[in-house]
Write a structure and sequence with these properties.
Structural class: alpha/beta
Radius of gyration: 18 Å
CATH topology of one domain: Rossmann fold
CATH architecture of one domain: 3-Layer(aba) Sandwich
Strand order of the largest sheet: 1-2-4-3-6-8-9-10
Number of helices: 11
Shape: globular
Distance between the termini: 55 Å
Helix content: 40-55%
Number of strands: 10
């Protein structure tokens, strides 16, 4: 019924349909998600869990859209077992945080403010979390390396995939992109590419070959603006990749192996 509602509204006013669709996109939440503890910091509160020794390499893990931080725990525990200090928050407005609708740019800004003064050896984003990670770095979050896992190329491609998923009428795409551009004062087609291209740290792009939620082509699009070579994994999908030993090994090498050792191995 909700999908039919968007179609009916769009037939009368694409702009009104776009407002409904974008609102639903930004308020989507998974059901029955586990709730981590709330950790107050610097006058704010963000639900997060921490793993591993406080003195280890610092890693920030970000989950994706309509997801929760528990999905990142296998990766967090693996890195912690190897000596990393891993921070795994629920995104602002999601999970155990007070429920609120935030744009991706607002989530990124709040993350950057929350971790102001911290420096991470790596920030790792799964799915839309990769796009949010890039925007958080743009907003000032400090990370020496950025790792994307099945991440979209741009806000435009992510919104397009969402509209396909909900079987939205075709005229809605342009209306949603126009609404997003006017609201953010930025072309959603550039939210992603411009940020990835400007990043000066080390970047690793990992993607599942058979990912049907974020197509493999998007990894190569990210590669085209960063110069990085994507690591493409077979026999996994958008979600199971998070528990894949090959992903864990690649991230462990990128995050925990000293730079000189990586250079010698090349």
């Amino acid at each position: 019924m909700r999908r039919h509602e968007i179609a009916m509204v769009t037939a009368v006013s694409p702009r009104a349909g776009a407002r409904i669709a974008l609102r639903r996109f930004e308020t989507a939440r998974p059901v029955n998600a586990p709730s981590p503890r709330i950790a107050p910091r610097k006058g704010s509160a963000l639900a997060e869990q921490c793993f591993g020794p406080a003195t280890g390499p610092r890693v920030l893990l970000l989950h994706g859209w309509n997801a929760h931080s528990a999905m990142m725990l296998p990766l967090a525990r693996m890195l912690a077992a190897q000596g990393a200090h891993v921070v795994v928050p629920d995104l602002p407005g999601e999970g155990a945080n007070p429920a609120r609708a935030f744009s991706f740019a607002e989530k990124a800004c709040r993350l950057a403010a929350h971790y102001e003064g911290d420096r991470f050896d790596a920030i790792i984003g799964h799915s839309a979390g990769g796009l949010i990670a890039a925007q958080a770095v743009e907003q000032g979050l400090q990370a020496d390396s950025m790792i994307t896992v099945c991440a979209p190329y741009s806000m435009a491609t992510l919104l397009h995939a969402y509209l396909i998923r909900i079987a939205a009428p075709e005229p809605l795409l342009d209306a949603v992109l126009d609404l997003h551009a006017r609201r953010e004062d930025r072309d959603p087609k550039q939210v992603g590419p411009a940020v990835y291209a400007a990043y000066t740290g080390r970047i690793l792009i990992v993607h599942a070959r058979t990912d049907w939620q974020v197509k493999l082509a998007e990894a190569f699009d990210i590669a085209s603006v960063t110069g990085a070579t994507p690591l493409v994994l077979d026999h996994c999908n958008h979600h199971t990749i998070l528990e894949d030993p090959r992903l864990h090994a690649a991230i462990s090498d990128a995050v925990l192996t000293p730079t000189d050792e990586r250079r010698l191995a090349c």
